[in-house]
UniProtKB/TrEMBL annotation:
Signal peptide: none
Keyword Oxidoreductase: yes
Listed transmembrane segments: none
Top-rank taxon: Eukaryota
Protein's UniProt name: Fe2OG dioxygenase domain-containing protein
Annotated organism of origin: Vigna angularis var. angularis
Keywords: Iron, Metal-binding, Oxidoreductase
Amino acid sequence: MEDSKRVEELKAFDDTKLGVKGLVDEGITKIPSIFHHPLDNIKRVSESGHKDYTIPIIDLGRIHEDSGERKRVVERVKEASETWGFFQIVNHGIPVSTLEEMLDGVVRFFEQDSEVKKEFYTRDKKPFIFNSNFNLYSNAPANWKDTFICDRTTNLPTLGDLPSVCRDILVEYTDEVSKLGSLLFELLSEGLGLDRTYLADIGCNGGLYAVGHYYPPCPEPELTMGITKHADVDFITVLLQNQIGGLQVLHQDMWIDLPPLPEALVVNIGDFLQLLSNDKFKSAQHRVLANRVSPRVSIACFLTTSSHSNARIYGPIKELLSEENPAKYREFSVPEFLAHYSKCANQIPPLMHFRI
């Protein structure tokens, strides 16, 4: 597509302020060319004959009263973070009713009256942002999803900043995830052989961004993607998803399905933690497929630093380094990393820019 024509189509889509759901509501049967993706030549595990790839499921239920169980959980978290970069957790302490209400809240936001929803549509930096494809005007094909982003730490939103249809549950749920994040950073610190509070002490859990995704049914899912292949730019991500599926993790050069598990949360390692751990923990690339059946709904909480610590310099943790394991990355600040990430357009992993 010619660049000028593509920009016109992108702007026309953006100007509707209705996102991908607006296209579906119109009853389209062919998706616009701005959503067309090139074919991926990486095999899915289902095509390879392998049956034994299962992303770890870790039960946190007894770690507070049984020290032996805590050690076993730390070992499982360590192994999953080294091997997969992904795991699911059950008995994590967040009530099932809160999980269900949060997913319902995401649905209520995206399925509310269009004129009300339009009021939140913006590409400006605000405490609460709704749009379709934050990088819509990049050279990459657009993804088949709409998104809201709520900054629960840097720009602490007042209740008036948040949409009434999901305001209370968004505050309640993100508060719960923040507490859970503190526990996860303890387990990850211990998995690295460090003091329990090490990652918290250096500010890894100072900030939280809640990102709600709505993937409408797609009339031509084979031509597009829900989210293209990427790794997360944070320390860890905690994901809540409905039962539609579509999330895949790149593992040993194959796409592995991560099927939804009722009442579970997905945890994955981000680029920052791979760098801090000097490649001991892996920030795995992942993607979401489009589907033609039913809306996929998810909310990802990105745990990262707060704006107050953006001047902090991070690098490979010195306690993990030795003559046999020298630093593989140079030091960075979060703003520097994010500035580079914005230029990558998913072509080259941003971590590579910081390798020594």
